[in-house]
Amino acid sequence: MADVTTVTGRGASRPVRRAVPRRPARRDGPAWVPYAFIAPALLLYGAFLLYPLVRAAQFSLFDWNGIGAAEFVGLANYVDIVHDERLREAFWHALVLVFFYAILPLCIGLVLAALLTRAKVRGLGFFRTVIFLPQVIAMVVVAVTWRQIYAPDGPLNGLLRAVGLGSLARPWLGDYTFTLPAVGLIGTWVSTGLVTVLLMAGMSRVSPDLYEAARLDGAGPVQEFFAITLPAVRGEITVALTLTIVAALKTFDLVYVTTSGGPGTSTTVPSYEVYRRAFELGEVGSAAAIGVTLTILVFIINAGVNWFGERK
Amino acid sequence: MNRSKLSAGLAGTALLVTLAACAPGSGTEEETTADAPSGEVSTDISDAGDVTLTVWDQEVRGGQDEQMSQLNDAFMEQYPNVTIDRNSQSFDDLATTLRLALTDEDPPDVVQSNNGRNTMGQFVADSQLVPLDDYADAYGWFDRFSPNTLQYSTYSEDAKTFGDGNLYGLPQVGEVVGVFYSKSKLDDLGVELPTDWTTFDDALATAKEAGEVPIQLGNIDQWPAIHVFGPVQGGSVDAEQIVDLGLGNSGASWTTPENVEAATTLQGWADAGYFNDGVNGTDYDAAWQNFADGEGVFLIGGSWLAADLGDAMQDDVGFFVPDTADGVPATTGGTGLPFAITSASENPDVAAAYIDFITSDDAMQVLADTDNLPVNDTAELAPDEGVLGDVFASFARVTDEGNLLPYLDYATPTFSDTLGQALQDLLDGRATPEEFTETLETDYSEFVSSNG
């Protein structure tokens, strides 16, 4: 705030005015006009995002059940988050989901995008549409569909049994070891399309001359990929990671519909805990504290990703 | 001061004022101080003037919705001065919006609130609901309902005790959890219909030997197993103990040998392969549909499944509740969500008349006609045949002779999750019966001691 003030305030404007006294600073109207232009957006943004955020931060300092009087408890709700084993587990699950939502789709997406842009595939538009399709479907629909695919007598187990791998068949959403990866892979399926399409856009910008030059120098397809393609799409990778990591950390609908956090507590995630505490247990203060913590975590991780992505 | 500094300062001040001005929940405090009916209740509402009564219910499914519409129309016909503004939402939607609605500036008059401590209990503690005892005396509700039923909408004034104190709501329908069975499967196995838990166990073993799935269970959502454990617990634990445990009142314990025995029985069934494969990964709906398709001999579930199973299986499906060693049935059950009056209602007399109307003897007939399980006069209103006849008879027998045990998740605000997760652990063999009861005891005793 402070340095913004110096630039737009006295320090910046006065010398200009003094140097060109006969040509006053060009103004299209009174000083409030620029604010009037941003006001509609700012009001909406303020009313539906900033205000709720501030209120949530305020709630997080209270012990409040959502109906009665609230009691100010300072940071006690945050202290509880650190000490609550169930919550620590939930945050850990969110980080595991980051692997499935962001890292894995990025690896798959890089290979797919490189193949689709470099190889002159016929019907490229068709493949692109198919890959992107999961992004378009509502998450609840995706979750209901996969819940049936993963059912004990569902298509996945049917396929495994048909090819003689019946010993691998299991209740995918009721198995303590495999449920979190199973839920995560749904996220992979959804994210891969977005990541691939983003990366393809980036790769199509790379000049063919670069590849030709590399090939003249004797580089194979793999070397081309690491020397030219990968550095060229660093910006796209940053965007893709930012979007998918946010999606991973705020996962709610997928877990709510597929497992409700089970079996046991093996797939609970922070957003689900927010819902559970606010609406089922009536611990609004604690729920708000988890929400705020999650928001901060999302900020930190994405600040890291962006710092890494924009580093020269 | 230059402009940016000024506006930043203003914004900051505004923020501080906002933060300091209203602690959450403080704004609505004065409005909810109820003018509680102080002995002067009126049962004559025809001269109450033109009144609009806002009712929030969750009777959205076929027969439920039908009975509600019929009764609302009949009520408005009898009292032309009253208009009912009905807001009907699914169970889950109502649960999440009711809390906000009650603290709203213009809350509904009559609401259907879940019985448990984290809903009705909290509303009572925060004086959001009107105690109905004066109305109950005036209308004779204490004679109309059995005390066994009313305890599930009764709280002390501070809501610390559940099951004793003031009456806060009246239910329309009953619910009972028991065993659905396939008649043709039992015939094929050459097994008589079990009557108690010992013969039930034998039937399970025979079914398993014959290569059938003895019990269908879909437990991906965690709560369905609560309805299996409940009746099993009713078979080995003293009913009074279960009521105290289930209502979260002090004086009971989960770690008794009887509770361990119940958990051992359930885990024994899982170990012996009496359930379908992968119970913790199976859908609740898929389980009863599989049962209806002829996969499975028994299905332990609530009376709410009877209508669908009857449609699908016709005469092949039956329903019973096994007896305990004492020769009486004891099983989980209770009532539908009770109707309560909000403290902010401007017309509590009209609201009480409405609740009286929809729980009257005539209303019970309407409920039975629309395939609902009426909470009163159940035996008289039972259909002659079909699985609904079995269900009506079982409910009447459990409430009259046996023990209708509370849903175990009423106990503490967190108990639904604790028990659901612990049961998944138990069924999976991750927890021993002893560990299972200790997990539950921790939640229960923490709550009881914090409740004072």
Automatic annotation (TrEMBL), chain A:
Biased composition (Basic residues): 15-25
Residues covered by the ABC transmembrane type-1 domain: 91-305
Keyword ATP-binding: no
Stretches for region Disordered: 1-27
Cited SUPFAM superfamilies: MetI-like
Segments crossing the lipid bilayer: 32-54, 91-117, 129-149, 178-201, 284-308
Superkingdom in the source lineage: Bacteria
Recorded topology in the membrane: Multi-pass membrane protein
Cellular localisation: Cell membrane
InterPro entries linked: ABC_transporter_permease (IPR051393), MetI-like (IPR000515), MetI-like_sf (IPR035906)
Pfam families (alphabetical): BPD_transp_1
Keywords: Cell membrane, Membrane, Transmembrane, Transmembrane helix, Transport
The family this protein is said to belong to: Belongs to the binding-protein-dependent transport system permease family.
Protein name: Sugar ABC transporter permease
UniProt organism field: Paraoerskovia sediminicola
TrEMBL record, chain B:
Annotated PANTHER family: ARABINOSE-BINDING PROTEIN-RELATED, SN-GLYCEROL-3-PHOSPHATE-BINDING PERIPLASMIC PROTEIN UGPB
Keyword terms of this UniProt record: Signal, Transport
Residues spanning the signal sequence: 1-23
Cited PROSITE patterns: PROKAR_LIPOPROTEIN
Matching Pfam families: SBP_bac_1
Entry's localization field: Cell envelope
Organism annotation: Paraoerskovia sediminicola
Protein name, as recorded: Sugar ABC transporter substrate-binding protein
Similarity comment: family membership: Belongs to the bacterial solute-binding protein 1 family.
Region (Disordered): 26-47
